[in-house]
Design goal:
Number of helices: 3
Structural class: alpha/beta
Largest sheet: 6 strands, mixed
Helix content: 10-25%
Distance between the termini: 24 Å
Strand content: 25-35%
Number of strands: 6
Amino acid sequence: MKLLLPMDREDTQEGSLVPIAEAKTWALVDVEEGQVVEVRFFAQKETALEEWPDAVIVPGDYEPVMEFIEQQMMVLVAHMQRSIDDIVEAFLFKELHELAF
């Protein structure tokens, strides 16, 4: 499963999930069998989308996500989680919510 996250910096430990409009980089987190296999950062969202992520994770319900939905990507909301580790853990335990319209 590949998760796409808008982040404030290219740092797997100190980076934080931010609104799409504030993203300085995009993290593509590859999760297999409950483990993070790889984290790659992309300067451009379009380049990250070429990797066919399964889901995009955003920090709130009012993010501009139509382009992801049009590409049939799942959009999940991490209301409280901000670090990559916390987001992956919440994803694995199904604590992230699907975007409500």
